[in-house]
């Protein structure tokens, strides 16, 4: 079937909220049938949001062909590029790539796109005619939307009228066989131009500085700044401060941002889309959980999910709206990054318990729009005077803060008559309107307080004088007196437990001001929980919509109750009232829900415990394990020993990346770990510097462990890496990917379940450069023999009595690690690689952008050719097959005079807290995901392991073993993270199936290295393998040897008032693929036509790798991101899809891979091979999904798919 | 030629019969059973057999809501089992640690 749409791109004024904040230069896609209507409405309502001004969302069914006539009414070439779909790249790419035909439309022109909806899901569309970032681009101004593909035979209706519809962000979707569901498109976007009513940039009324940039959803946002102004002016909310009522509809009425409406139990799909250009956001949805992959029942359960630009997920709340317990009320949906949340990136999911036919009103008199019940579900009861339904039984007062819940606060009020009518049979504190806890559940009670106290983060005395933390009441005295070291509160329970928390607010009323923050009256706090089941009206620990305010005042105690139905991860707890003001001071913790029947033991004494970030468990059915919890933190507002604020923002109250970093309230900055000889190579050595103050996770060799990874604060992405231990990405699924790295955003929770095969010190780190530099690393220490303060696991053999003393800090260079090759290889082939590390200039493109100080690993046999310019430098890619032993001989040929900054300060790209750290002439090579003994072959000098780095002229051997076809494994230097890595000291190891030959694609002769090979295997089809190494933080000079200060230097259409200080440290530097970068600004200077910038007809092919294939050839892309900045990149390949997890047949299939940040490694097997199932030849762009600033900075290239045999490219034999 | 055609007894019949006999012999004893499908694990007392279906008074499974009930488990769905015969290890009585007795 063919479905047809006529879509226009039009300029439009977008009013972003009811305060009149607007984008005068907005652009949107709209159906032709709505064009005049929307234009008229906007003309009539210049200062109010217009419903029809929303991102275009159209729908079709799986298997259909969509013919889309696109008409451009903007004054530059635009198009519609669709992700996920299959299409003829020469006719319907919506771009002008390589040697394809230009498929953008000129102003006033039209073009017909033909798309094939091969699979249900979310097909984002956006413009590529104007790839400029910033306010002169098209994407930041709104030129995006989505085509939502439904199951075959579906149809859709307007949720308000029940009539069929052609476009709209909300729809009810129906099917002859399957249940109907509510479909909500939730489209995050950022960096849109926002002006206030006067046409100027909004000013923050407290700081008098320009407001944060726009962060919103569906062309709307509801900033705290605007709402707080109404309090300041005395219009509403007497005696309130601001943040605690930011989401309170009693004070302000409903927000302009999206409200997703449904009835209790309705099946729903939130199509979560990131159409923004820059930030990685964290989508959090109160009360509900969902599977990370709705197609895969073994996938991880989530309630918070990071999303990077131009990527998407389907969020299908388990048990429907209101979850298992059937909660009703307002569940807030928001970006969990607090500065974004405060900027207005939030909305509500409103779950009604009574029928809304349009005749009812909210408490403030605003009519409640009708909402059709889903036709296959029983309609909820009609509201009556005695049972008016949510929100009209709540005894609130319009214009004032929401009321406190009945029963919850100790000594507080009971129920009103209307509340009693709405309540469950046995209302009790925390469970008044739904009862989440079954009668036979185990009961556990915890008494928790939140307190303020000074906390010292490191040995140098960096401290937070106003740290705020959760503690159990029984620990209060010990923590406050200094007997117990403060750590984030982690309490432990088992599945099928009803958890009661008595939460006491012991904070001072005032969070005092300083260089970081303004004085804030944080007079009430709550204990907001994730994952567990609860009554969202009274127990959310928040103040949301028309719900109650379930927080407490200082000195008061509130009782909460939750149910942990099944084994859960470490569920996140935090305050929801003043989170933006004080969560970065430490107001976060976690409850871990373990398998049933688990006992929790103190790892030192074996006594039962209820809390702790490191415990030992005992279970009669499953293997015992060590349980470790790590919380990453940014925005840590620290002062040094002299009271000097560290990394204060430009002005107090600014959310512009203030402060530093922590992990469990600790950090171990590298600048303080230079030993007496000032060699960064020994930074991580405990011989030289003693153990870090950050967590050392202790276990015995062979122990099972679970690392619970969370992020407690506050705005940024972090990349957790463990060296030498890997885990299943989806714990329950044995076909899931094995990983050694995990991206994490605030409030996300991951469990890494693994075991420690060999004794030694394993390195863990949040491994982007700035995190690591500022101390986010530690060790997992696996003992080979008994130590006195660590009980063995009860089901493991008793460790042997200690035969030799434990190593100690000597202050001297670490001893050399033993030679791993002294032990003979028992079985299997050995592959030898003689690798040298040396310096050589890298030329990044034909415009002369270059890094004169590149550091490269290469095979010794290739070194001369590279130095002589006969062979182009590319990152070293080596391969081994399953069963192979890999012996690497590494030699350092680094020379001090070839380092640019021998004085020890690397000025750009910089990191926070720059300090002396001279270049090391030692180097090492650390691989991911394959097997090795960390004591000899981890390629790093860590803890009490011996030295595994090599000095100039020295060589050492590493021995690795390929035990599984892991595919892409990153490989990088660990001797000097400041002076080596972003300069090129990285590569990849590819672990191939047994029996694979690795051939040059152009000669079909065997090769030992290369980013582009053909894999030939007697049992598998021949495959083209393309290795793309995405990297950033590069320091480039232009052809005139002037420093290129990217990203701003690379902007095509920079704003006139561009300010270098606006660029975060972690955006600094240039970026590219495989030491190449096709920066668009170079092309634009030569030929200033935006839509031609990707064209090879105009510019020739880009400098980035050009991968070639024939239609239908099997293709695997190995995508590795070894270096180094904290900003994540999305990878997107036009016109193709791949499985998220290549070995999991139930995996979702997508055309993007998100979160490419230090340590990420992916294997993308193109479904249907080159040209996808429909086999269209042409030039397919691979690129970053981040319009700001990656694409402009050259993070793009071409996969060229030929249909005719080319002389230079032999076909794969079949 | 198949065993049946040769007049031999199919091996599955032999297996099923042995299992039925074994479970029958241990009626009244506690059994630990793993199944491939949900809910994967049962601990309970064997009440009897209905043909080749084990009738189990279930004390513990992976899901609390399924406990304290009688479940009928087809022996073909049993992957692994252990019956407490008095001579080998005891199947633990699994208890949850509560601050108070369940209501």
Automatic annotation (TrEMBL), chain A:
List residues of the Plastocyanin-like domain.
58-152, 1101-1157
> Has the keyword NAD been applied to this entry?
no
Instruction: Using the record for this protein, list the coiled-coil segments as residue ranges, or answer none.
Output: none
Q: What Gene Ontology terms describe what this protein does at the molecular function level?
A: copper ion binding; oxidoreductase activity
Q: Which domain of life is it from?
A: Bacteria
Region spans: Disordered: 797-821
Q: Which residues form the signal peptide?
A: none
Q: Which UniProt keywords apply?
A: Metal-binding, Oxidoreductase
Q: Does the keyword Magnesium apply?
A: no
Task: Give the protein name, as stated in the record.
Answer: Multicopper oxidase domain-containing protein
TrEMBL record, chain B:
Top-rank lineage group of the source organism: Bacteria
By what name is this protein known? Uncharacterized protein
- Organism expressing this protein natively: Paenisporosarcina quisquiliarum
């Amino acid at each position: 079937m063919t479905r047809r749409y006529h879509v226009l791109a039009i300029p439009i004024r977008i009013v972003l909220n009811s305060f009149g904040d607007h984008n005068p230069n907005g652009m949107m896609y709209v159906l032709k049938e709505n064009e005049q209507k929307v234009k008229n409405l906007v003309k009539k309502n210049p200062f109010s949001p217009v419903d029809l001004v929303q991102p275009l969302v159209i729908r079709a069914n799986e298997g259909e062909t969509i013919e889309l006539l696109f008409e451009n009414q903007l004054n530059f070439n635009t198009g519609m590029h669709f992700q996920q779909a299959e299409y003829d790249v020469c006719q319907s790419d919506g771009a002008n790539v390589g040697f394809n035909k230009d498929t953008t439309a000129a102003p006033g022109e039209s073009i017909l796109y033909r798309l094939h909806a091969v699979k249900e899901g979310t097909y984002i569309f956006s413009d590529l005619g104007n790839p400029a970032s910033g306010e002169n681009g098209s994407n930041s101004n709104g030129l995006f939307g989505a085509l939502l593909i439904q199951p075959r035979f579906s149809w859709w209706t307007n949720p308000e009228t029940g009539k069929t519809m052609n476009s709209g962000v909300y729809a009810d979707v129906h099917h002859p066989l399957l249940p109907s569901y509510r479909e909500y498109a939730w489209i995050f976007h950022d960096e849109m131009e926002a002006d206030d009513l006067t046409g100027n940039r909004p000013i923050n009324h407290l700081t008098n500085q320009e407001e944060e940039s726009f962060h919103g959803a569906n062309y709307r946002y509801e900033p705290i700044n605007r709402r707080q102004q109404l309090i300041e002016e005395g219009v509403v909310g007497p005696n309130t401060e601001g943040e605690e009522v930011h989401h309170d509809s009693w004070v302000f009425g409903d927000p302009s941002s999206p409200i997703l409406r449904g009835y209790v139990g309705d099946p729903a799909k939130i199509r979560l889309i990131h159409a923004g250009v820059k930030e990685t956001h964290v989508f959090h949805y109160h009360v509900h959980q969902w599977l990370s992959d709705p197609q895969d029942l073994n996938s991880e359960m989530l309630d918070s999910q990071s999303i990077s630009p131009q990527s998407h997920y389907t969020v299908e709340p388990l048990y429907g709206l209101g979850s298992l317990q059937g909660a009703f009320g307002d569940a807030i949906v928001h970006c969990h990054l607090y500065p974004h949340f405060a900027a207005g990136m939030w909305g509500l999911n409103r779950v009604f318990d009574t029928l809304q036919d349009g005749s009812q009103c909210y408490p403030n008199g605003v009519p409640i729009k009708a909402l059709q019940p889903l036709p296959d579900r029983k309609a909820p009861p009609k509201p009556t005077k005695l049972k008016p339904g949510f929100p009209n039984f709540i005894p609130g007062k319009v214009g004032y803060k929401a009321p406190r819940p009945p029963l919850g606060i100790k000594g507080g009020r009971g129920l009103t008559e209307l509340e009693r009518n709405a309540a469950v049979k046995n209302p009790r504190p925390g469970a008044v309107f739904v009862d989440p806890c079954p009668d036979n559940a185990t009961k556990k009670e915890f008494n928790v307080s939140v307190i303020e106290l000074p906390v010292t983060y490191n040995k140098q005395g960096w401290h937070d004088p106003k740290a705020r933390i959760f503690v159990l009441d029984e620990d209060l005295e010990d923590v406050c007196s200094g007997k117990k070291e403060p750590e984030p509160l982690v309490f432990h329970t088992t599945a099928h437990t009803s958890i009661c928390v008595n939460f006491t607010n012991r904070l001072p009323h005032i969070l005092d001001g300083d260089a970081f923050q303004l004085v804030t009256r944080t007079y009430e706090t709550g204990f907001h929980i994730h994952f567990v089941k609860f009554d969202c009206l009274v127990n959310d620990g928040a103040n949301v919509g028309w719900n109650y305010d379930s927080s407490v005042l200082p000195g008061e105690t509130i009782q909460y109750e939750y149910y942990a139905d099944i084994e859960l991860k470490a569920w996140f707890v935090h305050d929801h009232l003043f989170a933006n003001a004080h969560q970065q001071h430490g107001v976060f913790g976690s409850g871990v829900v373990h398998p049933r029947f688990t006992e929790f033991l103190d790892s030192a004494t074996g006594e039962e415990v209820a809390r702790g970030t490191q415990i030992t468990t005992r279970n009669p059915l499953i293997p015992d394990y060590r349980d470790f919890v790590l919380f990453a933190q940014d925005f840590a507002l620290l002062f040094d020993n002299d009271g000097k604020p560290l990394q204060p923002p430009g002005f107090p109250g600014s959310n512009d990346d203030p402060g530093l970093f922590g992990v469990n309230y600790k950090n171990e900055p590298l600048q303080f770990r230079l030993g007496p000889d000032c060699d960064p190579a020994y930074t991580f050595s405990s011989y030289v510097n003693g153990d870090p103050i950050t967590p050392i996770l202790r276990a015995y060799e062979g122990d099972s462990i679970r690392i619970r990874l969370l992020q407690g604060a506050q705005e940024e992405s972090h990349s957790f890496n463990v060296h030498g231990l890997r885990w299943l990405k989806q714990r329950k699924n044995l076909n899931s990917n094995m990983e050694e790295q995990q991206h994490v955003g605030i409030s996300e929770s991951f469990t890494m379940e693994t075991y420690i095969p060999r004794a030694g010190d394993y390195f863990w780190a949040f491994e982007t450069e700035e995190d690591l530099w500022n101390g986010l690393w530690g060790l997992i220490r696996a003992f080979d023999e008994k130590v006195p303060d660590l009980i063995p696991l009860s089901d493991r053999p008793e460790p042997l009595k200690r035969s030799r003393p434990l190593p100690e800090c000597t202050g001297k260079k670490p001893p050399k690690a033993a030679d791993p090759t002294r032990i003979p290889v028992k079985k299997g082939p050995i592959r030898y690689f003689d690798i040298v590390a040396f310096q050589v200039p890298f030329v990044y493109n034909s415009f002369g952008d270059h890094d004169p100080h590149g550091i490269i690993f290469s095979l010794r046999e290739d070194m001369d050719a590279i130095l002589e310019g006969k062979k182009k430098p590319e990152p070293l890619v080596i391969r081994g097959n399953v069963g192979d032993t890999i012996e690497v001989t590494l030699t350092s040929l680094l020379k001090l005079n070839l380092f640019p900054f021998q004085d020890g300060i690397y000025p750009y790209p910089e990191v926070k807290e720059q300090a002396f750290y001279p270049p090391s002439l030692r180097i090492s090579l650390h691989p991911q995901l394959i097997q090795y003994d960390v004591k000899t072959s981890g390629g790093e000098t860590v803890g009490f392991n011996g030295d595994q780095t090599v000095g100039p002229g020295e060589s050492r051997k590493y021995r690795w073993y390929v035990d599984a076809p892991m595919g892409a494994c990153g490989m990088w230097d660990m001797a000097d993270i400041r002076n080596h890595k972003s300069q090129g000291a990285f590569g990849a190891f590819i672990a191939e199936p047994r029996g694979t030959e690795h051939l040059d694609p152009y000669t079909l002769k065997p090769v030992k290295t290369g980013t582009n090979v053909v894999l030939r295997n007697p049992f598998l089809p021949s495959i083209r393998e393309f290795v793309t190494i995405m990297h950033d933080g590069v320091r480039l000079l232009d052809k005139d040897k002037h420093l290129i200060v990217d990203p701003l230097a690379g902007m095509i259409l920079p704003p006139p008032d561009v300010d270098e200080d606006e660029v975060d440290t972690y955006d600094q530097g240039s970026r590219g693929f495989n030491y190449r970068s096709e920066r668009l600004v170079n092309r634009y200077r030569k030929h200033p036509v935006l839509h031609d910038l990707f064209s090879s007809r105009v510019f020739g092919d880009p400098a980035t790798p050009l991968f070639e294939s024939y239609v239908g050839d099997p293709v695997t892309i190995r995508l590795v991101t070894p270096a180094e900045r904290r900003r994540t990149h999305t990878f997107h390949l036009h016109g193709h899809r791949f499985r998220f997890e290549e070995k999991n047949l139930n995996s979702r299939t997508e055309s993007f891979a998100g979160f490419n940040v230090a340590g990420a490694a992916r294997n993308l097997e193109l479904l249907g091979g080159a040209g996808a199932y429909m086999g269209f030849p042409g030039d397919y762009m691979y690129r970053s999904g981040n319009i700001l600033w990656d694409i402009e900075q050259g993070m793009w290239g071409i996969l060229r798919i030929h249909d005719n045999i080319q002389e230079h490219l032999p076909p794969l034999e079949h | 030629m198949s065993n049946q055609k040769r007049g031999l007894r199919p091996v599955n019949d032999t297996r099923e019969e042995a299992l039925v006999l074994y479970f029958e012999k241990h009626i009244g004893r506690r059994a630990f059973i793993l199944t491939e499908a949900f809910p994967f694990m049962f601990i309970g007392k064997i009440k009897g057999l209905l043909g080749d279906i084990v009738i189990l008074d279930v004390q513990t499974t992976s899901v609390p809501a399924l406990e304290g009930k009688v479940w009928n488990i087809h022996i073909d769905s049993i992957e692994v089992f252990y019956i407490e015969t008095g001579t080998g290890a005891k199947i633990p009585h699994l208890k949850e640690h509560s601050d108070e007795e369940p209501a």
